[in-house]
Structures are given as C-alpha cells and as structure tokens.
Amino acid sequence: MRWLAFAVAIVVSVVLQTTVAPHLAIGRIRPDFLLVLAVFVAMHVRGTDVIAVACVLGMFADVQSLERFGLMAVAYSAAAGAVYVMRAHVFRSHPLAHVAVTFAAGVIVQWLMLLYAIVLTGVGGGSWAGQFFGGLLIALYSALWAPPAHALLLRVAPWTGVDVPRYADLGYARAG
C-alpha cells in the first residue's frame, strides 16, 4: 500500500464529505463517503493497514460529529474489521458486493452509535427508534454510492498499491 496515495484519497473523501454530501442530502440523510472509502480499503488492502486507515477515517468523522472523540474511529475500525473478515466470501469486483458490504458496514457503524446512545441515555431516553431507522437509511444511502466510488478507486488501484482480485481461475478475469 502506498500511503501518499491513500493520504490523497482520504483528503478527497473528507472534502467530499464536508462540501458535496450536504448538497446530496435527502432530508437529514446524507451519504457517508468516509465509510465508502473505509469499506474499499477493507475489501482490497492487506494486513493491519485496514484498521489503521479505518481509524484515521473514523477520526476525521469524529471531528465532524458532535459525539465524543474516538467513538467513530472505534466504529469505523470495527466495521472495517468485519468487512476484512468477510471479504473472502464475496466477489470484490462486483457492484452488488460493494452495495451489500457497504450497507453491512454502515449498519455496524450505526448500531454501535445507537448502542452508545442507549448506554448514555438509557433505553427509555431519547428517540433511539428514530435514530435506528435513520441509521439504516444512512447506511443504505452510503451503500448506493459505493459502486461508482469503488469503480473509480479500482481504476486508480495501480497507483495506490491495492490488491485487485482477478478471479481468473473462475473465468471472471477483469479486462485490463
């Protein structure tokens, strides 16, 4: 993995999250481009770099949120770890896999945030049911942005040193 290339990708994702995502919002639901990048990294990068990049992306998400610093870093790292474990069981180059895995990661992040809110305020406090359904919608909206983002990131994969699956032994070799 080439860290300078990923530093550029992280900066681009942060800029997209802070400038473009508010304009793409549907009501209060906006896509999470930092999560989309974290899922891409978890699906294609080897080793402990996955958790490191997810933690950095989570820290940038923490800076943009009103929650305690480090909460999103832990949630993104947990989601990236789950994706890293399940990536051997999906076709990593298929757009439906990008949607499904990003949705699963988004649900993990949102459930961890909900669990934190429940522990902090108690089960009866606040509107945790609204936060639950809002979190599912955020995960779904982010997942719908994953295929074009992952396609772009797969195109620049040779510059970033990312492992791109070929599936040649199954007859699904990618052109290029």
Q: What level of helicity do the residues show?
A: 55-70%
Total count of domains = 1
Give me the number of helical elements. Answer: 7
Shape: globular
Order of helices and strands: HHHHHHH
Quick one: how many beta strands?
A: 0
Low-confidence stretches: none
Structural class: mainly alpha
Average residue pLDDT: 85
Oligomer: single chain
- Major sheet characteristics: none
| Alpha-carbon Rg, integer | 16 Å
Percent in strands: under 5%
How far apart are the termini?
20 Å
Keywords:
single chain; 176 residues; mainly alpha; 7 helices; 0% strand
Give a written overview of the molecule.
The protein starts with a helix and ends in a 16-residue tail after the last helix. By secondary structure, it is mainly α. Helix content is 69%, strand content 0%. It contains seven helices and no strands. The model has no long low-confidence stretch (mean pLDDT 85).
Compile the SSE list and pairings.
Blueprint (H helix, E strand, L loop, with lengths): L2 H18 L12 H12 L4 H16 L6 H16 L8 H27 L6 H28 L1 H4 L16
Gist of the model:
The chain is mainly alpha-helical and 176 residues long. Helix content is 69%, strand content 0%.
